[in-house]
Amino acid sequence: MKNLVVYGSLLNKKELLKENVSLKNIECVKVYGYKRIFNQEPSYRLLNSLNRSVLNIEENKESWFNALVIKNISIEYINTLDKREKGYNKVFIKDGNVKTYDNNDLFDCIVYKGKQTKRNDKILPNFDYLNICLNGAKDLGNSFFKDFLKTTYKNSSSGEVLI
C-alpha cells in the first residue's frame, strides 16, 4: 500500500467522497521539491478558452506546496484513478519530501504529475476547476488555505502566485 498525494480538485472533500475516499484516511501535508502550477491542458474540462488549465506540479528544489495525502491506498484504487488522471503520470516522491503539518515524515508517497505533452505555459486557470480547488482548500482551514494561495502559480510564463 502507498500514500497518494493530491493537490488539485481532490483537495475538495466533495470530490474525494465522489471517488469513494474515506475522509478518515486523509491528512494535510507539505511536499518539498515541487512547484504547483496551472499549466496543464485538461483531459475532461475541455474549453476553447485561454482560461482552461488545471493544476500540475513541476520539480523545483527551491519550492514546496501543500496537499492532502490519502493514506494506504489500494492497488485497485490506483488503477481506477489512473483512468481519471489520464493526462498525468504517476511518480514516486523522494522519501523525506512529504511532511505532515506537525513536521512528521511520510514515506512511500506517489503523486500524479502532468505529462509533458499536455503542458501549456500560456494558458490560465479554468474558473470552475479553480473554485473547486479554492473551496476545498478553504474547508481544510485558514492556515492550509493561506499556504495554498502562496504556493500555487497562475502559469509558467507569468511566474505569479495565484492571488
Write the layout of secondary structure elements.
Blueprint: E1 2-6, H1 13-18, E2 26-40, E3 51-73, H2 75-84, E4 88-93, E5 98-100, E6 109-114, E7 124-125, H3 127-139, H4 142-150, E8 152-153
Parallel strand pairs: 1-6, 2-8, 3-7
Antiparallel strand pairs: 1-3, 2-3, 2-5, 4-6
Helix pairs in contact: 3-4
The gist of it:
The chain has 4 helices and 8 strands; from the N terminus they run βαββαββββααβ. It has 163 residues and is of the alpha/beta class.
Describe the structure.
Helices cover 23% and strands 38% of the residues. Strands 1, 2, 3, 4, 5, 6, 7 and 8 form an eight-stranded mixed beta sheet that branches. The chain is an alpha/beta fold and 163 residues long. The chain has a single domain (2-40, 47-153), classed as Roll (Hypothetical upf0131 protein ytfp), CATH 3.10.490. It is built from four helices and eight strands.
